[in-house]
TrEMBL record:
Name this protein carries in UniProt: PIG-L family deacetylase
Organism ancestry: Bacteria, Pseudomonadati, Pseudomonadota, Gammaproteobacteria, Pseudomonadales
EC numbers, comma separated: 3.5.1.-
Enzyme class (EC, first level): hydrolase
InterPro entries, per database record: GlcNAc_PI_deacetylase-related (IPR003737), LmbE-like_dom_sf (IPR024078)
Record keywords: Hydrolase
Pfam entry (one): PIG-L
Amino acid sequence: MKPSLLNEHGLPAQIWNSAPQLDNIPVINTHSLVPAGARAVVIAPHPGDEVVTCGGLLQLLSSLGHPLQLLSITDGSASHPGSRQWSEQRLSVFRPQESVEALRRLGLPMHSLKWVRGGFTDNALSDQQSQLTEFIGRYLRPGDVVFSTWRKDGPADHEVVGRASFDAAQKAGATYHDVPVWAWHWPEREQQMIPWERARKLRLDTWTVARKSHATHAYASQLKGEPAIGIAPLLPPVLLERMRLPYEIVFF
């Protein structure tokens, strides 16, 4: 992605900060998104994706007493190839610890939270869609409302996990919603690629946004890259800036 335009704040003119359609997305409330008594299932390709995609929604659902199920497909240990500071061995231990801290910062009930770690290999999911569908399906049941990364989000792991989650939800009789992550950071000229007619906006109050931003910063290993070996931050400043928007968007 090489955006060539800048908005008035000096940030790259990407879809998240320039598309006029954002102002016209219909607003939906938590009760309409996840009916009373329904269980919400958030499926994250990598540690941190559950906060970036649904950090606000998770807080709202928790405050309403909804049962929550989180699935972390990989441990994210391949995020720094060639790094001595963040070797795969270290990250395989450290990134789950970051997730625990992030979920604690969201205020989720860690003592009762249903959280499953899949153990699939990071950055190697493209050929494992059928295995992923089977794995995810073990944890779904009729009536669940499932959220995962958009099936056209860009990164291969995001897309295959989204497809597998969709297939598993259909087989289980659950409702599925895509949540874009990196698509919002496409150049503004690609805004026609977004299925705006499927988009719905969930509003977040100031405190919910603050906790979500605080939780995102728990991923210390992802905040700084290693320029010497060509590794950029996995959570760059522009993404952290978007995390402070007073809403989250899901696709129906």
